């Protein structure tokens, strides 16, 4: 999270180029939406599994980052592909996601109905809730995304589950009253790449598909993968120390 915000700071200030960042988490981590109550997290269960807890700068509900790929799109607010309304940005960026999934051999669709993000939703897990331009395959939600918009830039986060039990997130939440019912509902609504493709795709293949998908659908020319600039590194270290590793931030709601 600190790295994404550090890049956002520099992209918004014109010091860094618009960025597509792809990453996994080690160890696993439950991320809460910007305004989601920390009470939604079952911190005892997280500790038992050795998983971390963090609060995102983006909205939405809880996501368990394990056996998945996280993407972050970061652009200045005047970038044509994200300029305008929140819905316009979701729609444009969904084109890249749709193209990427087609490269992987899927036939995805995107629901164009606008959904007002509700941080206190009855269902605290991201993949239990509808989202803007929700990416589905065979009726199953496959990508969960959320945005943060500032005066100078836009950050969109998304999670793509690759393999593993999709309902593991429920064990990390404190508001699950009937676990078996919640598991059944989540399995009806969401899936991962393995369950849809019949096999778990190689992580590098998923990453390559996302790069190619965003490039072709949004007419982008990506530079070769790069490390953070020194200024981004310094800012990320500062944000990690003063914000994302802080109980004040994590428990802000």
From TrEMBL:
InterPro entries hit by this protein: aa-tRNA-synth_II/BPL/LPL, BPL_LPL_catalytic, Octanoyltrans_LipM/LipL
Residue stretches making up the BPL/LPL catalytic domain: 14-222
Pfam family for this entry, one: LplA-B_cat
SUPFAM superfamilies the record matches: Class II aaRS and biotin synthetases (SSF55681)
Superkingdom of the source species: Bacteria
CDD domains in the record: LplA (cd16443)
Stored Gene3D superfamilies: Bira Bifunctional Protein, Domain 2
Stated name of the protein: BPL/LPL catalytic domain-containing protein
Biological source species: Ornatilinea apprima
């Amino acid at each position: 999270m600190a790295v994404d915000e550090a890049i956002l700071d520099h992209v918004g200030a014109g010091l860094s180029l618009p960025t597509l960042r792809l990453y996994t988490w080690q160890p696993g981590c439950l991320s809460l939406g910007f305004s989601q109550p920390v009470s939604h997290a079952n911190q005892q269960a997280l500790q038992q599994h050795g998983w971390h807890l963090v609060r995102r700068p983006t909205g939405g509900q809880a996501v368990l980052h394990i056996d998945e790929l996280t993407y972050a799109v970061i652009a200045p607010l005047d970038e044509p592909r994200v300029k305008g309304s929140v819905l316009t940005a979701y729609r444009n960026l969904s084109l890249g996601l749709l193209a990427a999934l087609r490269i992987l051999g899927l036939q995805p669709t995107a629901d164009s109905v606008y959904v007002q993000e509700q941080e206190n939703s009855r269902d605290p897990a991201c993949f239990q809730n509808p989202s803007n331009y929700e990416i589905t395959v065979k009726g199953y939600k496959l990508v969960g995304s959320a945005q943060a918009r500032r005066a100078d830039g836009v950050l969109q986060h998304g999670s793509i589950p690759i393999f593993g039990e999709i309902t593991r997130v429920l064990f990390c939440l404190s508001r699950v009253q009937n676990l078996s019912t919640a598991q059944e509902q989540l399995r009806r609504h969401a899936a991962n790449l393995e369950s849809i493709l019949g096999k778990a795709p190689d992580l590098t293949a998923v990453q390559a598909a996302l790069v190619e998908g965003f490039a072709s659908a949004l007419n982008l020319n990506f530079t070769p993968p790069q490390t953070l600039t020194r200024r981004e590194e310094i800012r990320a270290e500062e944000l990690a120390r003063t914000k994302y590793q802080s109980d004040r931030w994590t428990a802000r709601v």
